[in-house]
Amino acid sequence: MMAESLLPGEAPVSLNEARGWLRLGATIDDAVIAGLVRAATNICEAFIGQWLVVRAGEEEAQLSAERILLGARPVIGVDGVTLLSADGSEIPLGEDAYRVTIARDGSACVTVTDPESAARVRIAYRAGMAEGANGIPEAIRQGIVRMTQHLHDARDGTGVGPPAMIAALWQPWRRLTLGSGR
Fold first, then answer.
1. Which of 66, 53, 50 is nearest to 3 (CA)?
2. Is this structure's pTM higher than 0.90?
3. CA–CA separation, 174 vs 167, rounded Å?
4. Same domain, yes or no, for 59 and 123?
5. What DSSP letter does each residue of 124-142 carry, written as one string?
6. Which of 172, 176, 163 is nearest to 138 (CA)?
7. Whole-angstrom Cα distance, residue 172 to residue 129?
8. Domain residue limits at 62
9. Structure confidence by residue, pLDDT tens digits, 129-152
10. DSSP letter, residue 117
11. Given strand 90-92, what is the order of strands in its sheet?
């Protein structure tokens, strides 16, 4: 089961911010810089274990477990649960046919009360720390800018790792799990 974002979400660092930090005046490299910002954002989300800007996600999972732990955090709501039968049919469930538990740390699990004959389930949900870029803590944004700079500087194949300052900026928001809980 993999958390999949249906939409890329708003970038927590604007192209102008990244270009200014890199001291680039011309807009000729905007596509490259935008790609580096997206990559730095993905690295940040993987490191802290949370999605930054709220966006829609979807997961498919086996129904063999008593509860299904969603892969993204912090979950702010489940929009729908659909049973998937082996013959390819789909049965959308009403809100009374499943239970959602969202913990303080933003992790969430879904329990289907009567899975019938379905073997799999699809869960649509929303997750993220903030509704927009301005709601992201400034230390996280600064880490993304610095990671963008590192990726820009390393584009010629230099083997230097990212500066420790980046991890220090992101560390207070890092959420780790011990096992999958599935």
1. 50
2. no
3. 9
4. yes
5. EEEE-SBSSGGGS-HHHHH
6. 172
7. 14
8. 55-127
9. 999 999 999 999 999 999 999 999
10. T
11. 4-5, 55-62, 120-127, 75-84, 90-92
